[in-house]
Design brief:
With 198 residues, the chain is α+β, with helices and mostly antiparallel strands. The chain has seven helices and eight strands, in the order αββββββαααβααβα. 30% of the residues lie in helices and 17% in strands. The chain has a three-stranded antiparallel beta sheet with strand order 4-1-6.
């Protein structure tokens, strides 16, 4: 597996770039519930830099594919199946490489104040898309679904016209996000010339 520098803070790029305080305020927390055994390092463990929730930036490479050492003080969190790890979304973290025979499995839950999703449009769209996508337990999440949710969370509140798959266009309509943000959302490319000519 090629190297990739994946140290990050959760909360989305808009939230992390647009809140101009140092440190940024705690707007959400997360819980990682471990299903697999990460009781030893090197099993795809959560890696954190203790205390890093108080800084908005850490040193990193000019490109993510350039080999770069872990930040000073980085540790791998170990946990047994059934353990829950509670952390501030601002803490700088990544996952370790998995050199074991175990498949890394965990469920992550995020908790935030409801006003956060209402006042940050991209967060509101993301939550609504996830909620509607989860509402049908018979339809499995596919590889690009999360990418679609993240792209729509930026496109719907900030674009005039959005072209997406039928499922997502339907969800946008159900949640009335197109009306809320005055955005035209379509799934048929043939309508695009007419809409752009307005």
């Amino acid at each position: 597996m090629p190297f990739r520098f994946d140290w990050h803070q959760d909360g989305g790029s808009r939230q992390n770039r647009e809140i101009e305080t140092t440190p940024r305020p705690r707007l959400s927390v997360k819980v990682a519930y471990w299903l697999s055994d990460v009781s030893e390092p090197g099993r795809g463990n959560l890696k954190v830099v203790p205390g890093s929730h108080m800084v908005n930036w850490i040193d990193g490479p000019p490109r993510r594919d350039i080999e770069w050492p872990d930040p000073d003080g980085a540790i791998e969190v170990t946990a047994e199946p059934g353990d829950a790890v509670f952390f501030d979304r601002r803490i700088w973290h990544t996952r370790s490489r998995n050199y074991s025979e175990h498949t890394r499995q965990a469920v992550f839950f995020g908790y935030t104040c409801r006003w956060t999703t209402i006042r940050i449009p991209s967060r509101w769209v993301e939550c609504e898309m996830r909620r509607l996508r989860h509402a049908n337990p018979q339809k499995q999440w596919e590889g690009n679904d999360l990418n679609d949710v993240m792209a729509l969370s930026v496109a719907v509140p900030y674009c005039d016209v959005v072209v997406t798959e039928r499922q997502w266009a339907h969800f946008v309509g159900v949640a009335k996000l197109d009306r809320r943000f005055n955005t035209t959302v379509i799934s048929d490319l043939r309508r695009l010339p007419e809409l752009l000519g307005r």
